[in-house]
Amino acid sequence: MALSCGRKTSAPEHDWASNHGATQPAPVVTETPLPLEPPFGPVRVPNSGFPCDVDDVLAAKCRRCHSTPTRHNAPFSLLTWEDTQPLFRDRPRFQVMASAVKSGFMPYSVRTNPPVERLSDAEKQVIVDWAEAGALRASCGPAAAASSSARPLAKKNHKPKL
Predict the structure, then answer these.
(1) In this predicted model, what pLDDT tens digit does every residue of 37-50 receive, in sequence order?
(2) 3-state class of 77 per DSSP?
C-alpha cells in the first residue's frame, strides 16, 4: 500500500499553457541555404549543329550541367550536335536523351542554387521530336534562327537497340 502526503503536484509548465488556451509557436525548421553556384558556361557555341528550337532548350535547361566541363555528375556535354552522336551504353546519345527526357528522369533533380528547372511539356516535345526524327544536323545562325530550317546531312547508320 502506497502512502501519499495528500498534496497535489502541479502539472509541468507546458501542460498549464496548453490547458489554458495558450499556444506555443511551432518549432521553426531551417535549412542551411545553399551557396550560389559559380558562373558556368558556355551555354551556346557558334554553329552548334542543332536546330534552333533544340539549341534553345539545351541552352535554357540542359547546359547548366551538360557543358564543358560537365557539372553535377553529368556524363557528357551537349554543346554541339557532334556531342549527341557517340554511343552511350550501346545507344546513340540522342536516343538516350530522348528516353531520359520522355521518362522525366532528366533534368535530374539535384539541390542547387538556383534550383534546376524542369522541362515544360513543349520543351520535352522539342527534344523528343528531334531525336525520334533521327537527330538531324541543322544550322542555327542568325538567318536560320529566323526560319528554323533544318538541313539534313548524311547521318551515320545507327541501329536502335532492340
Answers:
(1) 887 778 899 999 99
(2) coil
CA distance 61 to 75: 16
Where does the chain have alpha helices with state H?
A: 13-19, 52-57, 93-103, 121-132, 142-147
- Enumerate the domain spans of the chain: 51-147
Q: Name the maximum alpha-carbon separation found in the chain.
A: 99
pLDDT value of residue 138: 96
Look up residue 75 and give its DSSP letter.
S
Mean pLDDT of 78-102: 96
Element counts in the chain: helices (H) and strands (E):
5, 2
DSSP letter at 100 equals H
Nearest residue to 83 (alpha-carbon basis) of 103, 100, 63: 63
Q: Among candidates 105, 108, 110, 75, which has minimal Cα distance to 93?
A: 75
Measured CA distances, 19 to 10, 25, 69, 157 (Å): 12, 15, 61, 77
Cell numbers of 95, please?
Answer: 536516343
How confident is the model over 109-120, as pLDDT tens digits? 778 788 888 999
CA 7 to chain centre: 65
Q: What is the pLDDT of residue 42?
A: 84
Helices 93-103 & 121-132 angle (0-180, nearest 10): 150
